[in-house]
Design a protein that fits this description.
The complex is a heterodimer. Chain A is an alpha+beta fold. Chain A has 12 helices and 11 strands. In chain A, strands 1, 2, 3, 4, 7, 8, 9, 10 and 11 form a 9-stranded mixed sheet that branches. In chain A, strands 5-6 form a two-stranded antiparallel ribbon. The longest helix of chain A is centred in the N-terminal third of the chain and has 38 residues, at 4-41. By secondary structure, chain B is an alpha+beta fold. In chain B, strands 1-2-5-4-3-7 form a 6-stranded antiparallel beta barrel. The longest helix of chain B has 15 residues, at 141-155. The relative contact order of chain B is 0.18. The chains are: A alpha+beta, B alpha+beta.
Chain lengths: 390, 189
């Protein structure tokens, strides 16, 4: 049971800290905006400095003026948005059988004179040894929530690819995914496991590239600060910033601190009008060293209700037509979805597995076991949770 | 089965609910329908509802014409459903229509078809359907009487005698409620 008296006092202290930070935000944003304008004049110098610097944070790679705003391109009358999302029932070792389930949706929304909608989802049950265990640093370990989530991500992209192949790629087609395309969680994973995910993932991206269909990861209210961090590098008085040898730690405030704590979303809300997009930046996430020609870039877009972050592979950035298409279609999708891309929202709705679905799933498993004359043994812990005594 | 007008999604002894294959389309209120089975169940449509397929989602306003909606928001038509509720009047028992509840409700997922003129004629040959409506709970009885009578009369090629006969039956059923009877009869003219 949750003691709400104690929770409430902790919520109050959280609010106090938020208030203190919020009062500083306008000044921070003003300063960040000034820096953005100032550094745009000599963006090449800043770009070089960033390349040479070694910071403890992710810094955006720059290849154009920082404040170069891209206006909203005209939308083609007809287009198709593809998306997929997944939801899962994690294995529960207190349940009768060790198995898990992944439900993946596939969404194809076609607009214009040929408008139609395909909405669906399909479950996959995993119970074989090769599904339940994974190789991690040469060892065989049970698939945990992280492993299952990564498998789910792969299945989502496979599902979009399958849709694309089935429907045929029209000229104006986009594949949208909820969240980042940067599988940064794999940075800490051993090479055998990392390759088992990255290699098929990049294989899927390669197929999209061959079909010339842009893939974009959409992040609503992003918490990222890559561009702010680039500006922090610009605030650093040193010619090259080397954070681990920072000579300013004795000062009451570091020269790069005044804009610390801001997100790129805050910054670009002062730069972009509705429909406009920021320049394209290069992500410096370490895992991207393994992405080759699919290195992930990103831009921010004002979709009216908020600033969103859009992540795209390098080949989309290099193809002006695909980049323009991505910009206009993402804006249209968000507008149709009243602030969030409608295809991604539908993908979520079709995929979602709710708590009561989970309970029903496990009761189906138990029932099937009884019918097959297996003895159903649930752990004492599982039983105690189901029928709490007094 | 291409010409069905609904599929039974909830089945009970007193009536059933059927899902229309196309959003926004349904047999009209008061029409006679039957299920598609060896022993079909006959009934009257008394409620038509269009809404969200999922309990947690409600249709929103888009400020667009129907044509614009179909072009720019095609997914919403996949997320809506139209269902119609049917009051059971009788069933077919070895070739004979029995004006009483079926021993078993129609199987779930059986198809629903509109009744032919001949079936409507048979179903309205006696006044049992009027009594079924009057005694049913939670149906808009008076309006259902009017709509079903007008439908039956059309199927019977505007047979005047039929209307007189049914009017007499109604006056018998509603002899204790003159106002109600008068209101129904006035609206039948």
């Amino acid at each position: 049971m949750l003691n709400f008296h104690l929770v409430k006092s902790q919520i109050d202290s959280m609010m106090k800290e938020r208030r203190d930070f919020a009062s500083e935000i306008p000044d921070k944003i003003r300063l960040a905006n000034e820096q953005l304008r100032l550094r745009s004049r000599d963006w090449e110098g800043l770009s070089r400095k960033i390349d040479e610097s070694k910071t403890s944070w992710l810094v955006a790679g720059i290849s154009s003026p920082l404040d170069a705003v891209r206006p909203l391109p005209e939308r083609p009358r007809g287009y198709t948005a593809l998306s997929s999302d997944g939801s899962q029932i994690f294995p529960d070792r207190h349940e009768a059988l060790p198995c898990y389930l992944i439900n993946v949706s596939s969404i194809a929304l076609t607009y214009g004179d040929d408008a139609r909608a395909v909405l669906g989802s399909g479950p996959s049950l995993f119970y074989k040894d090769e599904d339940r265990f994974t190789t991690w640093g040469g060892k065989r370990v049970p698939a945990d929530s992280e492993v299952i989530s990564l498998r789910r991500t792969l299945m989502e992209f496979e599902s979009i690819l399958e849709l694309l192949k089935r429907n045929g790629a029209d000229r104006n087609t986009i594949a949208l995914s909820d969240g980042t395309l940067i599988l940064w969680r794999l940075e800490a994973a051993p090479p055998d496991f990392r390759d088992a995910v990255i290699v098929p993932f990049l294989g899927i991206l390669e197929e999209f590239r061959n079909l010339r269909v842009p893939v974009a990861g959409y992040i609503s209210r992003p918490g990222s600060a890559d561009v702010i961090n680039a500006l922090r590098v610009s605030l650093c008085p040193d010619r090259v910033s080397l954070c681990n040898q920072c000579p300013y730690t004795e000062l009451p405030e570091l020269p790069c601190s005044p804009i610390e704590g801001l997100t790129d979303g805050f910054l670009f809300s002062t730069v972009l009008d509705t429909g406009e997009a920021s320049p394209v930046f290069k992500s410096s996430s370490k895992i991207l060293d393994t992405y080759g020609g699919h290195h992930i870039y990103f831009f921010y877009i004002n979709i009216g209700e908020e600033i969103a972050r859009v992540e795209i592979p390098e080949w989309v950035v290099r193809d002006e037509e695909l980049l323009t298409l991505t910009h206009t279609l993402i804006f249209d999708q968000a507008k149709k979805g009243k602030g969030y891309p409608v295809s991604i929202a539908e993908a979520h709705e079709q995929a979602v597995v709710k708590a009561k679905d989970r309970d029903f799933f496990f009761s189906l498993v138990r029932e099937a076991m009884v019918k097959s004359d297996f003895s159903v043994t649930v752990s004492r812990k599982g039983l105690s949770k189901r029928v709490p005594g007094v | 089965m291409s010409d069905y007008i609904g599929e039974v999604v909830e089945s009970g002894t007193k009536g059933f609910i059927a899902r229309s294959p196309r959003v926004g389309e349904a047999p009209p209120f008061g029409s006679f329908v039957r299920t598609d089975a060896d022993s079909p169940v006959y009934g009257l449509v008394y409620e038509i509802v269009t809404g969200s397929r999922e309990p947690g989602r409600k249709p929103d306003a888009y400020d667009m014409s129907m044509e614009e909606l179909r072009r720019e928001q095609p997914q919403i038509f996949e997320l809506l459903k139209t269902e119609f509720h049917v009051l059971t009047l009788g069933y077919l028992d070895r070739g004979k229509i029995r004006f009483t509840l079926s021993p078993l409700p129609p199987p779930i997922h059986s198809f629903v078809l509109g009744c032919t003129d001949e079936e409507m004629e048979a179903l309205s040959s006696e006044d049992f359907f009027l009594r079924a409506i009057i005694t049913a709970q939670n149906v808009p009885a008076d309006d259902l009487i009017i709509s079903s009578l007008l439908g039956a009369q059309e199927a019977r090629k505007n047979d005047r005698d039929f209307m007189v006969r049914m009017g007499k039956s109604l006056s018998r059923f509603l002899k204790d409620d003159y106002e109600r009877l008068a209101s129904i009869l006035r609206r039948l003219l």
